[in-house]
Amino acid sequence: MKKIFQTIVDKDKGNCTQAVIASLFELPLEEVPNFISFGDKWFDVLWKFVQERGYEFEGTLHNTKFPIGSEFSDRPSNIPKLKEMSGVNGFFYASVLSPKYYKRGENLASHAVIVDKDCTIVTRP
Q1: Does the reported pTM lie above 0.70?
Q2: pLDDT in tens, 5-14
Q3: Most buried residue, 41, 87, 91, 114, by most Cβ within 10 Å?
């Protein structure tokens, strides 16, 4: 893994996912699509990008402590089977509450990070 940092820090418009994928695949940021720019199709572009590199996207790891009722709280977690997965050289794409844009009681923003098999955040783009 090569640490690549996001260049756009803007709620709901940042490129943290682009930076995480660039980091995982050790690519320059400009060689990875800025997924958020694809609007509702961002995940399709991400899924295809990952598949083209020989990997299966088995879902996003989500912080299991998202507040009840948030858009993230009802998503299933694949954390229990993480130990059985290989990831990209042992690292995984995950989503956590944005440390910059978290405000209790307001719409929550997520932030893409890289975690290891113990769900320890190893880089925040």
Answers
A1: yes
A2: 999 988 778 8
A3: 114
Query: pLDDT tens digit string along 14-37?
Result: 899 999 999 999 999 999 999 999
Closest of 36, 41, 1 to residue 18, by C-alpha: 36
- Look up residue 3 and give its amino acid: K
Give, in degrees to the nearest 5, the angle at Cα 65 between 68 and 21. 115
* C-alpha distance across the termini of the chain, in Å: 12
Tell me the domain boundaries of the chain.
Answer: 16-123
What DSSP line would sit under 41-109, residue for residue? GHHHHHHHHHHHTT------EE-TTPPTTSTTTTS---GGGGGG--TBTTBEEEEEE-TTT--TTS---
